[in-house]
Amino acid sequence: NVVLGTRSGDVFFFEGGELMWNKKLDAYVIESIIDENLIKVVSDKRIYVFDYYGRTLLNKSFPSYIRSTSITPDYFSAGLGNNELYLVDNRGETIWSNQLRDQIGVIDISTHVVCGLRNGEVHVFDLAGREINVFNLNAPVVSISKLTNNILASTLNNRLYLLNIYGGVEWVQKTEGYVTTSHLSRDYLIAGSSLGELYYLRMFRNPQQVKLVTGFVILSLVIGLIILIISLRY
After folding, report:
1. pTM value?
2. Which of 58, 73, 93 marks a domain boundary?
């Protein structure tokens, strides 16, 4: 099954390669996922939950437009245009919200809610809304990935940071172009930059770096292939 959301505000649901239904929303779609028997969609105005028949189970708006989002099986997180960060459950109930100091550019949810701000701050909250840590990276944060207690954050000034939620900065790596896509495993990470560079680094202090690819590449396909190779190897 596949769900697609478009900038024109359309949502298409395919099952077995056949279009089952489509809906026109009130704004462009930021993110859409399939979670078991639910289809979850975030536009820049609302969050939605649909069933496989296209019936609307949730339609929730916020005090401001949605700038950034992250979706998990249990939660939606939304960074609003008024700099508020929301955590919402699948019923649309607000679990908590926090007013931050600048625009929320990127969010990641797992065991924590991590967000990166335009002013260079990275905030870490637990799922109850308690702030665990704040890092200042001195440039707008453009991507965030998290695995266990590690956060990989990239900034607009071409720096890649490995952060420990309960500690500090493990290392900083200068990159060619800012990192737009990254994937973490227990011992390694792979990151692709805006200039088409692909990096493979160890998840330790002072990592040994191998720059794998130079030139413009289709990052998602290459990263997926390398992750498959690593998983088969280890």
Report:
1. 0.84
2. 58
